[in-house]
Design a protein that fits this description.
The chain is of the alpha/beta class. It has one domain: HAD superfamily/HAD-like (Rossmann fold, 3-Layer(aba) Sandwich). Strands 2-1-3-4-5 form a 5-stranded parallel beta sheet, with helices on both faces. The radius of gyration is 14 Å and the shape is globular. The termini are close together.
Length: 135
């Protein structure tokens, strides 16, 4: 089953014009983009609630764009795909991370159980295509 729902933490740093453009692009491909708030860290309940509201099941049809290791763990606990976004770990308005920092961030996401790690929000559409190709 292809990815039908992309979730991002509504309190996280993944937002802005780049994200809005991605949401429009994904919607044209049949992927709904929604935010969720997970105040409990790595528990899956907020993800399950957004899946229920969006009427998307099974969890394998959902990808979480993670901004930290707890979000990866919550996604995996919910049975969804998890993709870490390295640029989300940089404070808004700061310069992009160095390649060494990005490599360290990628390792952190993958060590936490992420299925993949990308550098920028704009790369999430390609991550969805890659995951869809695995199914």
């Amino acid at each position: 089953m292809p990815i039908r729902l992309l979730l991002v933490n509504g309190r996280g740093p993944i937002s802005g014009p780049e994200f809005s453009a991605l949401a429009d692009q994904l919607l044209a491909q049949g992927v709904t983009v929604a935010s969720y708030e997970n105040p409990v860290g790595n528990e899956p309940w907020a993800i399950f609630e957004r899946m229920r509201v969006a009427n998307v099941f099974p969890p394998g049809a959902v990808m979480v764009a993670a901004a930290n290791a707890d979000e990866v763990t919550a996604a995996k606990n919910a049975g969804t795909w998890a993709v870490g976004v390295t640029d989300s770990l940089v404070a808004s308005g700061s310069p992009p991370p160095s390649e060494d920092d990005r490599n360290r961030y990628r390792s952190m996401f993958l060590d936490a159980g992420a299925d993949a790690a990308v550098d920028a929000v704009s790369e999430l559409a390609d991550a969805i295509k890659a995951i869809d190709g695995l199914m």
